[in-house]
Fold each of these.
Amino acid sequence: MDEQAGQTTSLWMATEDVSEASVLTTSLTADVCVIGGGIAGLSTAYCLAREGRSVVVVDDGPIGGGMTQRTTAHLSNVIDDGYVEIERLHGEEGAALAAASHTAAIDRIERIITDERISCDFERLDGYLFAQPGDEGSLSLERELLAAQRAGLSNVERHARAPISGLTSGPCVRFERQAQFHPLEYLSGLMRAIERRGGRIYTGTHVTKVEGGSPGRVETEPGSVITARAIVVATNTPITDLVALHTKQAPYTTYVIGARVPRGSVAKALYWDMEDPYHYVRLYSDASGDRPYDVLIAGGEDHKTGQADDGDVRYARLEAWAQQRFPMIEEIVYRWSGQVMEPVDGLAFIGRDVGDSPNVYIATGDSGMGMTHGTIAGMLLTDLIVGRESPWTRLYDPSRKTLQAMDTYAQENLNMAAQYAEWVTAGEVGSPDEIARDSGAVIRRGLKKVAVYRGPEGDLHERSAVCTHLGCIVAWNQTEKTWDCPCHGSRFDKTGKVMNGPANSDLSPITD
Ligand code: FES
């Protein structure tokens, strides 16, 4: 779906060039058409190709050009929302299935890397969950520990402090056998493995229409058609469903820094605290040894997409947080942001689309665990498509309604509804003259709202500010130089070209 997901450069983008594929120019037929070339799409295509299915993958940007290149690539079975919360929402059995599925995803990634000889810095390591500052004596860590054990995670232990010099920590819970990798090197390897098995991959190919049925049809620009027995929509957030699914998840923007630290000065592990929103940390070492330092990657400072435009402030807070806990930081060398789709009940939506086409499948709601949820999608969707039972079908069913999540559901949908008030407010500035170079703002022109971007040379680009999904007013994001929709997370580049669903068309030209 994504052409480019913003203007910042992640560590992964700076250190791996994923090879280009060609644009689809002819119509073709396959067993399965996968829309989206991120971790969920390629994992699904790979698993299906291994089972002898013919697959075609299409993406309108480069492979991994959406949120996969903006992850921090923690591979973990420590569920983002915490096991206490997952157990409350899904019961003990659901929490155990969730734990097993993420554990299986890490194992599957490790096996694929071995089988396909993918060089992507995969490492097994421990994970540490810390209490909030001042909350060290509380029971929250203990509760997480017990809930994780009830969910079947073994080798989970409480420690008085992390065995890491320099990290000022109180008590923590250690989780064994977590992992990390380089996400774009992994995708490059998956891409080659799919092609070796006869899979076909096309980039720069925008999907304009998806039609389930026997067979299903995927129409692309400028006019090719893919006919397939099954269609998988793995576009971060689905472009096929207009409303239902988008009321059950909410888009959040998260910020990441990469800090240079002396090689070996911080023990390699995954780290999380228990603040809300929480912080997450890992290390990256260049396997070639060319860099004489490690990069400490820290993320957090999340906010609802399109509802804040203060990236500089958030980066500064993140840097201060990291420097206080890791005083060996020498210099910040990367800053980037990404988007997380937060399902109201903490687990991804993977399975049959909520519409009435039985042969259209979706994967969405990464919940900050996109690498493992994307891999679970590969395994689960393959089972569903080849007609095999899966123990995870019900847990991840996109049509599920989780009664215990109704409060969150109501809050998120009130928040979305409140965004329509932007239709009647004044513009952010009175005229384009007030917009600085390489910046944007929404202005009011009569009854219309206009998204105006001023380029570096002073050139003006105007588009309707009305999101082409369900009509909310987009907001300028100065960090990524994008127009972001505060309702369901659609994103458009500075000239209005669609980059992220659920919108599937560009902001409209101004016609008056
Ligand atoms: Fe739904 Fe914009 S993403 S209205």
Note: The first helix runs from residue 11 to 15.
Amino acid sequence: MKVVTEIAEIREQLAGLPTPLSLVPTMGALHAGHRALLQRARDLVSPSGAVAVSIFVNPIQFDRPEDLRAYPRSLEGDLEICRDLGVDLVVAPEKKSLYHPDHSTLVTESLLTRHLCGATRPGHFDGVLTIVLKLFNLFQPAFAVFGDKDFQQLALIRRMVRDLNLATAVVGYPTVRETNGLAMSSRNIRLTPVQRADASRIQRSLKAARDLIATGECRPEVFLQSARTHLLTGAPDEFAIDYLELVDPENLQPVAKVRPGVLIATACYYGEVRLIDHLVIKP
Ligand code: PAF
């Protein structure tokens, strides 16, 4: 497995890799959810292709400097996981290799970013789409694999690929969960053990709201009130809801009526640690 940090080296290494290429873009602090993405990436190109991973904590997608500072970093452990899973190339650049000092071009999407994280994290998705486009340009991967957990991010990347005629096939992978139902995230290690156990309330609350569909209920405010009550009942003092919304899964706009297929999504804080999760409403 090759590990490179400079753009010139990346291009050189890529030229020597077999095709097709699967790319898994990450910000490191790899966990079981990433392992599943890497396995999917390998399956997509087996037996002859190659798998590349990027590890880069992309500063321009952080809307709060303290969040960027506190983002977990564990390069040695990440490399071990990549080695273990037979990754061919790891690219772990510094900011200066990827962004020119007076970098001034951003990718902006103007519809799917209006709600959910797009509304509460200004500029976040400009940063995500910009780095993903840069990575797609650099790697020219046949496939790129992302977790469904970041539902809005995945929808936006698909939209960008469609709107900008990119050639990469974007592949989503179902959310991997801890045994208590908490969605796996690199941020989970910043929770205390008590918070980590408590955070099962997020998925539980979304499920409790979802189950209202079986009663014939279709008013969004009733679903949202149910989820809000479950989220807040017995929650620790440092717990707060950032947003809780019901949106159409295609355009991510709020719905007037809840029907099967609609998405209920939330972002919550335990102190400074922000967690996201969602659920598709099904009968
Ligand atoms: O999901 C992530 O880890 C990041 O947002 C991504 C897609 C690697 C872009 O920095």
Note: The chain has a mean pLDDT of 97.
Amino acid sequence: MDFQAVLNDITTEVTPLLGAGGQVASYIPALARVSPLQFGIALRTCDGQEASAGDSAKPFSIQSMSKVFSLTLAVRSLGDTLWERMGREPSGSPFNSLVQLETERGIPRNPFINAGAIAVADRLLTLGDAKSDILALLSSLCGETVAIDPEVAQSEADTGFRNAALANFMKGFGTLDNPVDKVLDVYFNQCAIRMSCVQLARAAGYLCRDGVHPYGGAQVISEAQVRRINALMLTCGTYDAAGEFAFRIGLPCKSGVGGGIVAVVPDTLSLCVWSPALDKTGNSQLGKMALELFATKTGLSIF
Ligand code: GLU
């Protein structure tokens, strides 16, 4: 298949819609300043072919897409014991909801809502230097050094009152072992990592290759663990719109409020799309449209 032509066509179709709807995330001030008039898309096949179009080389804030990679580190080291601290079910609630956490006694529904990712950050802190470990994993996976945007990290720390509430709540229930401020520091910094679509499409390569590193033969995590992460992306990766994503696109996806969405076609390719304006569910409006066009044009979907 001529993937470059597919991505060019998608970009031609969605670019006229830039600015026509959706809003950039405004609750993190540093993200509110990003121009919504940007669109990029990139993919990498399991055998190393690449294609990209639009603003695919422009770095952006990966936000919740980081949760896939922190989860990868946690399952690699902890295996099934990780699930003593969190569940694996879609939440059906906003990603920063406190209500569910109270009724479920401090155990987050899944690792992709904020509470779950904060609990994963706590586990990584117990295991080592969490921030450096996440950066090292991402840099290794995409073959380039990636970094944290300090302005975004500070902006999150200055305004992350709901995340602080979630973390304190979990601490009260005994879900977190480490001090709340240290756990939040990891979480805010991992969300503030900057990467481009090209880098993210490469980095997610192990998810379509049964856990094998995108640039080598080493196993990043086991085949069974990758299958589970892909399942969680499908069921929990796009906030409260996971059903709609499965219905329209049918691929494991993880979105972030920076406007990025990473998607996996198992055994075939990994791709990333980015456009900062978000729909009401917090997912990139044009990103979602582009992924639906991709599934339609290529017939690639797990269903
Ligand atoms: N740093 C963001 C927050 O915690 C991440 C949200 C997201 O991308 O879903 O609110």
Note: The mean pLDDT is 96.
Amino acid sequence: MKHTEQMMRPDALKNKVIVVTGGGSGLGKSMAKNFLDLGAKVAISSRNLEKLTATATELESETGGQCLAVACDVRNIEEVEAMHKQVCDTLGPVDVLVNNAAGNFIAPTERLSSNAFDTILDIVLKGTKNCTLTFGKHWIKTKQKNTNVLNIVTTYAFTGSGYVVPSACAKAGVLAMTRSLAVEWAKYGMRFNAVAPGPFPTKGAWDRLLPAPIKKKFDPKKRIPVGRVGEHQELANLTAYMVSDFGSYLNGEVITLDGGEWMKGAGQFNNLEQVSKTMWDILELAIRKKK
Ligand code: HXC
Ligand code: NAP
């Protein structure tokens, strides 16, 4: 058994209709493929229809499932409502919404224009709000139960982080939305959860967060206790469980999947791993002497 293998039983998502925003690339594409493998009908959406259509065709041929490509800029509520209608008309009532679409880049905050800051807030926080309100209100109106929303956040949604401040603010807002609605809308049969991935290589993230000139110096592997970055299938396995009926009791939770990365940053003495054995011998003697 390997961590890169499919974990769930093959019918785990049979008869589910799942929408993945930002599903044409990166982690969204990997989650969509896994959902299809597990029997769901999946709609992927983003701004670029050409990319989405190519992805949908690829995923359908790989999995034998049904994958619908729908163009939608999550910043625009009318486009989100139209996307929701197109998915319902084509695939049937939606059971699961995965808010995965995001925008991000590293920059010192003082270099950001007001519009640059807004652009990230709009894609991540407003986009998640637009999709959540549209899908959630529909579920309430039609009395559809056993639905859920999965939000893809980051570990700096709880710690904050310099150099990605708009994204940190937006993801923190998404996490607050997750926890708030998990309580308020549970009475309508909805669950809300989040996953906080550590570094998982994708072109979208690596181009904007780990560009070539700093790639070696800031190699994420160096700060991850398990010594490696994440494999897409690991995230796909976790999220499939979370959105499936096996996860029915999971509500209002954020699950971190980062090999211990953020804990390492938080523990004040964790960088003592750089101390050699010989130095530990010297330190122990010095400390014992103080008694
Ligand atoms: C400063 C920048 C900038 C940069 C853009 N801007 N790049 N400012 N430094 N590097 C400014 C622009 O000048 C403009 O402001 C404003 O931001 C909007 O830029 P546009 O290019 O007009 O916006 P748009 O076409 O909507 O593109 C949005 C984008 C782009 C976010 C800038 O990168 C994008 O499309 N991203 C989508 C995919 C993505 O980001 N994936 C990575 C997710 S990774 P002005 O004032 O000039 O108009 C992720 C991981 C988190 O979230 C955790 C990792 C561990
Ligand atoms: P990615 O491939 O760039 O995914 C982002 C997706 O969002 C793209 O498919 C993009 O498609 C879409 N998108 C951007 N703006 C949009 C808009 N206005 N409307 C609709 N769709 C939009 O990067 P990724 O690494 O897979 O990221 C996926 C998610 O994981 C994000 O939420 C990210 O914050 C999170 N995450 C990633 C990592 C990591 O290490 N990779 C770590 C933590 C969290 P278009 O450009 O076609 O619109």
Note: DSSP finds eleven helices and seven strands in the chain.
